[in-house]
Amino acid sequence: MSHLSEAILSAAQALPEGGLVSPKEFLHLASRAAVDQALARLAREGKLLRVGRGAYALPVASRFGSRPPSTEAVVEAIASTHGEVVVPNGAAEANALGLTTQVPTREIFLTSGPTRKLRLGNRIVELKHGSRWQLALGKRAAGKAIRALSWLGPEQAPSALHILHAQLPAEEWAALQAARAALPGWMARAVSEVNAHG
Q: With left for phi above 0 and alpha for psi between -120 and 50, is residue 60 left, alpha or beta?
């Protein structure tokens, strides 16, 4: 194995599960073309997985053979390396909050970065550029509630908000209230009405 390939692999091995390496990190060792070739070769040999454009991750060795890193680990790595906000989409949040029993079949996340697809083995994970109001409160419970409501829509929002009012901690309900100015009109109205009726 070439010195370049060894350097790439040892950098990938030093990262936690789902950690990503990109060609730019190795340009001090070789030209971009040489780095791209080394990454492509490592991917062909199964030593690295090409997760997306310019993003590679180490497969995880388990007693059942190797597997792709978990979606959560890769999404976390993207958020920290690119400085993006990346959160589950409304369908996943509604399910997690118990507002729907429908289990999302596709893995879709909202991001402050560009829309793109990641490939983790045979799983496709979609990152969709989200609106600022959908990402505003991040991963906290009030943010999850906003994304769940946006997925449920104006018809189901009022009944969902009564459930959320009962289950969210007081500070999260207060954060949801405080975010009203940034929300779409129908959602801001629904949140205000629940507040008015207690």
A: beta
Q: Which tokens sit at 48? A: 């690295």
- 58, 44, 72: which is closest to 15 by C-alpha? 58
Q: 55 with 90, same domain? A: no
Contact (CB, 8 A) for 22 and 56: yes
Nearest to 130 by CA among 94, 87, 93, 96: 87
Q: In the structure encoding, which two tokens stand for residue 152, read together? A: 């449920």
Helix crossing, 141-167 with 170-178: angle to 10°?
120
Chain centre to alpha carbon of residue 121: 17
| Angle between helix 32-44 and 3-13 (nearest 10) | 70
- Structural domain including 126 reads 84-197
Residues 55-77: what's their mean pLDDT?
A: 93
Reported as a single tens digit per residue, the pLDDT across 107-155 is 999 999 999 999 999 999 999 999 999 998 999 999 999 999 999 999 9
The number of distinct structural domains making up the chain is 2
One-letter identity of residue 141: A
